[in-house]
């Protein structure tokens, strides 16, 4: 709670008291490391992350956050090792993938950065940082940006009259179920049943 409120000094003090009460609780060291990192004191955070890892060697979060601290300090080899270990323990950790892609961008390893972004987008396709960073890495690789797709053209009633028939059967049209029940005939939906409302809220009516 104190970390979320950015009351970092209070949070560090609270984590310190928790460590005094139980010196072998890995989570307390990890939390104090986060509090130091949150306030920008990454060098002070690293010993706490290290102690947390010693007490809980399978903590993907502790490896990730120590890797983040190393990254902020420019210690890229150590950061790379920790971030890879974190992803080995938790391949779906998109925060670790974000920091790993930053590291690769810093080293101008753009192909690796694209792969990091792709892995993150497999977990969460709407991640803005992954979309933007992948585009930047591809630009630096000389990959052309994808061309924008033109919007599909809708058939006009004149080009595709609703009264036309298909194989001797009348064509039926789709109408959005509106308060005023206005008929919108596009000629794109075919059925032999009148007055049916589909799962998408479309009522099917025969057009005269």
Question: Which characteristics define this entry?
Answer:
single chain; 208 residues; mainly alpha; Serine Threonine Protein Phosphatase 5, Tetratricopeptide repeat; 2 domains; three-stranded antiparallel sheet; 5 strands; 52% helix
Topology:
Blueprint: H1 8-21, H2 26-38, H3 42-55, H4 60-72, H5 76-89, H6 94-106, H7 110-123, H8 128-141, E1 165-166, E2 169-170, E3 172-176, E4 196-197, E5 202-206
Antiparallel strand pairs: 1-2, 3-5, 4-5
Helix pairs in contact: 1-2, 2-3, 2-4, 3-4, 4-5, 4-6, 5-6, 6-7, 7-8
> What is the CATH superfamily label of the largest domain?
Tetratricopeptide repeat domain
Order of helices and strands: HHHHHHHHEEEEE
Please identify, by name, the CATH architecture of the largest domain. Answer: Alpha Horseshoe
Question: Could you name the CATH class of the largest domain?
Answer: Mainly Alpha
Counting DSSP H or I runs of 4 or more residues, the number of helices is 8
Give the total of beta strands: 5
Can you list the strand order of the major beta sheet?
3-5-4
Query: Which class of secondary structure composition applies to the elements?
Result: mainly alpha
What does this structure look like?
This protein is mainly alpha-helical and 208 residues long. α2 packs antiparallel against α3, α2 runs parallel beside α4 and α3 (42-55) runs antiparallel to α4. It has two domains: 8-141, Serine Threonine Protein Phosphatase 5, Tetratricopeptide repeat, CATH 1.25.40.10; 165-206, no CATH class. The chain is built from eight helices and five strands, in the order ααααααααβββββ.
């Amino acid at each position: 709670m104190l970390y979320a409120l950015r009351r970092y000094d209070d949070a560090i003090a609270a984590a310190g008291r928790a460590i005094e009460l139980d010196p072998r609780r890995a989570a307390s060291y990890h939390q104090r490391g986060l509090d130091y990192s949150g306030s920008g004191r990454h060098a002070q955070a690293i010993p706490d992350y290290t102690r947390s890892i010693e007490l809980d060697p399978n903590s993907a979060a502790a490896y990730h956050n120590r890797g983040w601290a190393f990254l902020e300090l420019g210690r890229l080899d150590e950061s790379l090792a920790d971030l890879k270990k974190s992803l080995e323990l938790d391949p779906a950790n998109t925060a670790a993938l974000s920091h790993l892609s930053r590291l690769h961008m810093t080293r101008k390893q753009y192909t690796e950065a694209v792969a990091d972004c792709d892995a993150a987008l497999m977990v969460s396709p709407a991640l803005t940082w992954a979309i933007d960073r992948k585009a930047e890495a591809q630009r630096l690789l000389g990959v052309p940006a994808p061309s924008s797709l033109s919007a599909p053209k809708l058939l006009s009633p004149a080009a595709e009259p609703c009264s036309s028939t298909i194989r001797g059967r009348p064509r039926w049209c789709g109408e959005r179920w509106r308060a005023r029940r206005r008929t919108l005939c596009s000629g794109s939906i075919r059925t032999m049943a009148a007055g049916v409302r589909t799962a998408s809220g479309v009522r099917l009516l025969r057009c005269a």
